[in-house]
Amino acid sequence: MTFICDWVKNLFNGDDTPNKNYNREDGANAFRSQISKWQEREGKVLSSYTFNDIVGGKIDMIVASNIHRKVINSTPWVANDVNFGLKDYWATSEQVIARSNGDCEDQAALIVRRLAEAGFPYDKLGITIVSGHAFATIQYVIDDFYVLDNGYMTNVIRNAKEFFPYVNYKGKALVPIVGFNMHTEWHY
After folding, report:
1. In this predicted structure, what is the pLDDT of residue 54?
2. Among 15, 48, 101, 142, which residue's CB has the most CB atoms within a 10 Å radius?
3. Rounded Cα gap, residues 24 and 11, in angstroms
4. pLDDT value at 14 more than 50
5. Number of domains in the chain
6. Integer angstrom CA distances of residue 181 from 29, 81, 105, 109
7. What integer pLDDT is reported at residue 26 of this predicted model?
8. pLDDT in tens, 155-172
9. Residue 73: which residues within 8 A CB-CB, separation 6 or more?
10. pLDDT higher for 48 or 138?
11. Average pLDDT, the chain
12. Positive/negative CA dihedral, 124, 107, 69, 162
């Protein structure tokens, strides 16, 4: 198993961690089928992306912040059972655009698409699944990434290394489980 962020692995291993018995591999395996189905469907809509290359393959946090804010302000959260009649369905960015809404992983998919269209390096963009939630990410160094949440945890882009030790979901520490983009999957 490979880990993209050793600090996350270390943060949640040891006696002082709130989820020391959590098995990340089991958590990642639970999402593997959904991830591959989404990657296949999103790959088919890649041709509909409108590439503007605003940032020229660089990570520009002002542009990222503007895109993030625009997506979360114009794409309200709506549950899958309302949108698709299913308990859990990962929409493609094209479906999110058509419906102008979606749940957390749908909003994350749209944020990733808009960043890619603006010229952000796609291999640095992803979606991270945590216990009970998902958000878009931009990896800016080998061992850290930015969190672009849909407003559930935060409305501003946050540095993950500083953010995760303090975030709770239903009284439990938020644990990154798996991350992915259209081409790959990684474990934390």
Report:
1. 79
2. 101
3. 13
4. no
5. 1
6. 16, 24, 12, 9
7. 59
8. 899 888 877 766 665 666
9. none
10. 138
11. 79
12. negative
The total number of residues written for the chain in this structure: 188
The type of residue at 125 is L
Task: Tell me: pLDDT of 22 over 70.
Answer: no
Q: Is the pLDDT of residue 71 over 90?
A: yes
Both tokens assigned to 136: 């878009």
Q: Extract the tokens encoding 165.
A: 């030790």
Residue 1 forms part of a structural domain? no
Q: What is the average per-residue pLDDT within 17-23?
A: 44
With a CB cutoff of 8 Å and minimum separation 6, the contacts of 5 are 143, 144, 145, 160, 161, 176, 188
Domain, as residue range, for 115: 6-14+23-187
pLDDT of 173 above 90: no
Q: Is residue 78 part of a domain?
A: yes
Q: Which two tokens stand for residue 115?
A: 């960043």
